[in-house]
Specification:
The chain has 550 residues and is an alpha/beta fold. The protein has three domains: 179 residues, Alpha-D-Glucose-1,6-Bisphosphate, Chain A, domain 3, CATH 3.40.120; 223 residues, Alpha-D-Glucose-1,6-Bisphosphate, subunit A, domain 3 (Alpha-D-Glucose-1,6-Bisphosphate, Chain A, domain 3), CATH 3.40.120.10; 134 residues, TATA-Binding Protein (2-Layer Sandwich), CATH 3.30.310. The chain is 33% helix and 25% strand. The protein is built from 19 helices and 27 strands. The chain has a seven-stranded mixed beta sheet, with helices on both faces. Strand 12 and strand 13 form a beta hairpin. Helix 3 packs across helix 4, helix 3 crosses helix 6 and helix 11 runs parallel beside helix 12. The N terminus is likely disordered. Bound molecules: alpha-D-glucose-1-phosphate-6-vanadate (VG1) and cobalt (II) ion. The site of alpha-D-glucose-1-phosphate-6-vanadate has 18 residues, from loops. Alpha-D-glucose-1-phosphate-6-vanadate binds next to loops.
């Protein structure tokens, strides 16, 4: 092929894309759907048409290594060349965790955005899922206004632009030229690891790990494998094998790379049923989620955010204190109680990391988190799984206690938010919508009604007004607030790919001095029953128990 034909960009005609609006984080679909002709290209075309600064700008491109990752990178490079992008920075074998991508976007001059190829915690492989996440120049998930614009562009798409060019070698760091586009292949791990070394005292953590404090990390065959191996085994001196399932596989070894008690069962059993380890953790497919376990102790993610907030000053990167914290609405109010004692702001945002972006950029918060195993800080604009693990280890290195002791001491001091999330997955979308519409229609009449052992104070649909730019996001979950301070929330997932997923979130506060030693399902039993009576979950879905209980 002659150099001139390489540079020729051409238009490929397509039928309208007309997909539904991207969900909580980007476009997430079955791998098969992504393989249909022009499907990936259509979404990328829409992005390249509306993202400001594309012509002449720099893009960051990588993914979680799942099936389709590398071929999608080649497609996107050719399309970026056709759209006049000046430079794309991608990574060896396309491996780039979501938090590492955020860091790379933030630290590379001239970056107009990032494209992360991942369906996060959804399974991968030919029969699994694939996804495209778009991040803005601040390193965070694109704001609603940008994703709305991308969606708008997909509606009228009739062609896309690309160049004809052979595939580039992504197997090692190098610089390439693709028509007018400069492509740099860099190591996707090293910058991120250096950032962690700046935020945490690795020597101190290494001391802890040498002191009869064996730990285990499960990468679930997903993107954190290479990062975790470098951090734990190479730098912190843990024995080889500390990182389990550390090789990123295209199908995640057939597993579901979701760090919770159901899908990371092997790890959970090691910690909850055995005594070989003092600490265990896992991250999800793209490395932004974390599950923290101690010996015979599971740390609820809402509690994790509260505990990190309460102890942040023990960690070098946060020694100067916190500007504020934020949590997603369905996350328990455990962090609120800590924030009140620290006398810092605590914000409540809709589900999805993008809603933390403005608060972080404006310097109003330092830490933030979601009940869905997501914790992060102002060091990047994504939640960050390994960061959370290192944060926990830093606190433990300083306190020299067990995870269970730290958690119990926290509850004893601040009270305990009994918390659980029940997920009903892959239910018929029509039935889920009907259930939701019925509930929504009855909200007005709920105040004053009995709910389990308490009375409903207020029932509404959560709507958020961003404190920084005043943008309003409505329809973010149905809330039932009880007079004793308990909460029940119903939400439909925006990340599932099969039917609908109904999430039921339950929370009850036991103040300091009360009984903090109950099993959460028992502590919440009345509310669980009342929620089913109200929404008729079992009757409507035909499911007699949730798919996942956290
Ligand atoms: C879920 C979680 C949400 C999280 C989102 C993306 O969304 O509940 O808290 O931000 O996944 O996480 P939903 O709409 O299914 O409830 V990830 O790890 O995909 O980037
Ligand atoms: Co994820």
């Amino acid at each position: 092929m002659s150099p001139s034909s390489l540079a020729d960009s051409h238009q490929v005609a397509i039928s309208p894309f007309n997909d539904q609006k991207p969900g909580t984080s980007g476009l997430r679909k079955s791998t098969k759907q992504f393989q249909t002709p022009h499907y990936l290209e259509s979404f990328i075309e829409a992005i390249l048409r509306v993202l400001p600064g594309v012509a002449g700008g720099t893009l960051i491109l990588g993914g979680d290594g799942r099936y389709g990752n590398r071929s999608a990178i080649q497609v996107i490079l050719r399309m970026a060349a056709a759209h006049g992008v000046a430079r794309v920075i991608t990574t060896t074998d396309g491996i780039l965790s979501t938090p590492a991508a955020s860091h790379l976007i933030r630290t590379t001059p001239g970056v107009v955005g990032g494209i992360i190829l991942s369906a996060s915690h959804n399974p991968g492989g030919p029969d699994g899922d694939f996804g495209v996440k778009l991040n803005g120049p601040n390193g965070g998930p694109a704001a609603e206004s940008l994703t709305d614009a991308v969606y708008g562009a997909t509606l009228s798409l009739d062609s896309y632009r690309t160049v004809a060019a052979p595939a580039l070698d992504l197997s090692k760091p190098a610089s390439h030229r693709l028509a007018g586009l400069a492509v740099e292949v860099v190591d996707g791990v090293s910058d991120y690891v250096s950032l962690m070394q700046r935020l945490f005292d690795f020597d101190r953590i290494a001391d802890l790990l040498r002191s009869d404090f064996p730990i285990v990390f499960d990468a679930l065959h997903a993107v954190t494998g290479p990062y975790a191996t470098q951090i734990f085994e190479d730098l912190l001196g843990c024995p080889v094998g500390t990182v389990r399932n550390g090789v990123a596989l295209e199908d995640f070894g057939g597993g579901h790379p979701d760090p919770n008690l159901t899908y990371a069962r092997d790890l959970a059993d090691l910690l909850l049923e055995g005594d070989a380890y003092r600490f265990g953790a896992a991250c999800d497919g793209d490395g932004d989620r974390n599950m923290i376990l101690g010996q015979r102790c599971f740390v609820n993610p809402s509690d994790s955010l509260a505990i990190l907030t309460a102890n942040a000053q023990l960690v070098p990167g946060y020694r100067d204190g916190l500007a504020g914290v934020a949590r997603s609405m369905p996350t328990s109010a455990a962090a609120d109680v800590v924030a009140a004692r620290l006398n810092i702001d605590c914000f409540e945002t809709p589900t999805g990391w993008k809603f933390f972006g403005n608060l972080l950029d404006a310097g109003r918060i330092t830490l933030c988190g979601e009940e869905s195993f997501g914790t992060g800080s102002n060091h990047v604009r994504e939640k960050d799984g390994l960061w959370a693990v290192l944060f926990w280890l830093s606190i433990l290195a300083s306190k020299r206690c067990s995870v269970a002791e730290l958690v119990s001491a926290h509850w004893a001091s601040y009270g305990r938010h009994y918390y659980s999330r029940h997920d009903y997955e892959a239910i018929d979308s029509g039935k889920a919508d009907a259930l939701f519409d019925r509930l929504r229609g009855g909200l007005d009449r709920m105040a004053g009604q009995r709910f389990g052992t308490a009375t409903i104070r207020l029932a509404d649909e959560f709507s958020y007004c961003d404190p920084i730019d005043a943008s309003v996001t409505s329809r973010q979950g149905l809330r039932i607030l009880l007079e004793d301070g308990s909460r029940v929330i119903f939400r439909l997932s925006g990340t599932g790919t099969k039917g609908a997923t109904l999430r039921l979130y339950l929370e009850r506060y036991e103040p300091s001095g009360g009984n903090i030693d109950l099993d959460p399902q028992r502590a919440l039993a009345d509310m669980i029953q009342a929620a089913d009576a109200l929404a008729d979950i079992h009757g409507t879905t035909g499911m007699d128990r949730p798919t996942v209980i956290t």
